[in-house]
Amino acid sequence: MTDGTTADRRWTRRHPALPGAPRLVCFPHAGGGASAYRGWADRLAPEAEVLVVRYPGREDRFEDPLVPDMATLADRVAAALPLSADRPVTLFGHSMGAAVAFEVARRIEAACPGGLARLCVSGRPAPHAAPESRVHLLPDEDLVEDLRALAGTSEAILDDAEFRALFLPAVRNDYRLIETYRPEPGARIAAPVSAFCGTHDPHVRPEEMPRWREVTSGGFSLRTFPGGHFYLQDHLDGVVGEVAGLLGPAGAASLTG
């Protein structure tokens, strides 16, 4: 457990807020960096403190070594977060970030009972229900086509050979990390889970998201938005508004058992 002053600050981009404000930790998707949550702090601060996880191998951590497996990544992120039962954190993760957030949630509850307020997951099947895939083994061109299908990466970047050479190693590593990840049998958390999904996400159907209910002994809720895998780019105000309503004790009223 850390108060945030001794943690490795390379792992989060922190947006200050009012003293005692609820904390929200955001986890990017595969290949994504802290910039994926650009605008969240603008909408939530100073009433909430926003911390965005900074994975190595991209953006301002481009030269840092990539993390090869889920356990190591979750260990390092959890160790870098400010944890306190008096000021529990809410986690929000999209796509790969949802699985990373789940593993970090487990570590928070083990290290700091009461330190986790809620887990919010988006655009990703529950860890024990995720289908097997091997996209990380595909040739570069096929990997790029998968990114095009998800429509979350700029076409200009995908079409530029030099940019592709720079970001594809991190993308492939992230795909390998998430595709080789297997949760511990029966892994659960006590905090409530709130799930989010696009109505036409090619990677997870809205009717699959309730499987997240099986990993919590707390409450569960599901909210869908029109759109595909990156629905939250088109509905930023709506998504952030929903998450804001879940921060702090008042959010418990929105959950069903």
Under the CATH scheme, the architecture is 3-Layer(aba) Sandwich
Strand proportion, as a percent range, falls in 15-25%
The SSE order reads: EEHEHEHEHHHEEHH
Number of strands: 7
CATH class: Alpha Beta
Portion of residues in helices? 25-40%
* CATH topology name: Rossmann fold
Tell me the distance between the termini: 29 Å
What's the alpha carbon Rg, rounded to whole Å? Answer: 17 Å
Low-confidence stretches: 1-6, 249-257
Question: Could you give the order of strands across the largest sheet?
Answer: 1-3-2-4-5-6-7
Please tell me the total number of domains: 1
- Please give the oligomerization state of what you see: single chain
Biggest sheet architecture: 7 strands, mixed
Would you mind describing this structure in some detail?
With 257 residues, the protein is an alpha/beta fold. The chain has a single domain (9-128, 183-251), classed as 3-Layer(aba) Sandwich (Rossmann fold). The protein is built from 8 helices and 7 strands. It has helices at residues 40-44, 70-80, 96-111, 140-150, 155-159, 161-179, 231-234, 236-246; strands spanning 12-15, 23-27, 49-53, 89-94, 116-122, 193-198, 220-225. The protein has a 7-stranded mixed sheet, with helices on both faces. Strand 4 (89-94), helix 3 and strand 5 (116-122) form a beta-alpha-beta unit. The longest helix has 19 residues, at 161-179. Mean pLDDT is 87; it is low at 1-6 and 249-257.
